[in-house]
Specification:
Blueprint (H helix, E strand, L loop, with lengths): L1 E5 L3 H12 L3 E5 L10 E3 L3 H4 L4 E4 L4 H9 L3 H4 L5 E4 L5 H14 L2 E4 L2 E2 L2 H5 L3 E7 L1 H14 E6 L4 H31 L4 H10 L6 H12 L8 H15 L7 H18 L7 H5 L3
Parallel strand pairs: 1-2, 1-4, 2-3, 4-5, 5-6, 8-9
Antiparallel strand pairs: 6-8, 7-8
């Protein structure tokens, strides 16, 4: 297939490379200059990426998506029959705007955010959450299966996939915060946090990929980013917005937001999400 790709950050670059490896013709555009990617043609304007059978967008936030997709006029000039696959983590409100704009432009839209860190993207082991028109999803399913290990259908309303992604990232933030606090409690009582995590990963949380990924980072203080805290905090903000008038009742959500804001204010916004343990464990 002719595949367009917009957004070549750590995740997008790996996804585009895997699509090219699978034999698809991939033309990609990025808002800033990027190094060449084997098998991927870098184009000069975003409209060239919409001259395709299917086009992915993997952009950082609502603002970037609105600028590139809604404000640039690319939908009006898109190739007839193209399916736009929105893989960015965006707000429910932005997803609704995109759905309406695509309907007006006559362009098929599938919301397909992904779960997984950059190493999972490199290994084509992402979990893809897809919602939208069933015919459009079926058309692009081979592409989604190329970048991921499983496609999780969430119905025909695109924003449902975004709600699932936001809810999942909210729970991820809470889980990492809980791990950080568990380690702090252990240390405060003279228990080696490593021994504590070995116990947890072998009993209550055995088989949990989140605990397996983040426990070593918390123990080592290695905050080299995979999922930047700045982006995790953005997603927590999306969760607050999605919760609407129920947000004040979501006390865990409010607590992890406060912790992440403290870490960001301390200058660690570009560090990994696991840096919340530095905030919890501060003197």
């Amino acid at each position: 297939m002719d595949v367009g790709f917009i957004g070549l950050g750590m995740m997008g670059k790996a996804m585009a490379r895997n699509l090219a490896k699978a034999g698809h013709r991939v033309r990609a555009w990025n808002r800033s200059k990027v190094a060449g990617i084997e098998g991927v043609e870098i184009v000069g304007v975003p409209s060239q990426a919409f001259d395709a059978d299917a086009t992915f967008t993997m952009l950082s936030d609502d603002k970037a998506v609105r600028e590139v997709v809604l404000d640039s006029g690319v939908l009006a000039d898109a190739r007839p029959g193209v399916v736009h696959i929105g893989s960015s983590t965006i707000s429910v409100a932005c997803a609704e705007q995109l759905t309406a704009a695509h309907r007006e432009a006559g362009v098929a839209y599938v919301s397909a955010p992904v779960f997984g860190r950059p190493d999972a993207a490199e290994a084509a082991k992402l979990n893809v959450v897809a919602a939208g028109d069933a015919v459009a999803i079926e058309k692009v399913k081979p592409l989604l299966e190329t970048i991921g290990q499983r496609v999780w259908p969430m119905g025909e309303t695109p924003k449902s996939a975004n709600a699932a992604k936001i809810g999942g990232n909210m729970m991820l933030g809470m889980a990492v915060g809980a791990m950080a606090e568990g380690a702090a409690l252990a240390k405060a009582n003279g228990l080696d946090p490593k021994a504590f995590f070995e116990l947890m990963l072998s009993t209550l949380f055995a088989g949990s990929p989140i605990y397996a990924i983040y426990a070593p980072k918390i123990l080592s203080g290695d905050f080299e980013p995979g999922f930047k805290l700045r982006l995790a905090l953005k997603d927590i903000g999306l969760a607050v917005a999605a919760a609407g008038d129920k947000a004040e009742r979501l006390r865990l959500l409010q607590a992890i937001r406060e912790e992440m804001e403290g870490v960001a204010a301390a200058g660690m916004a570009e560090s990994d999400l696991s840096a919340v343990s530095a905030w919890v464990g501060r003197p």
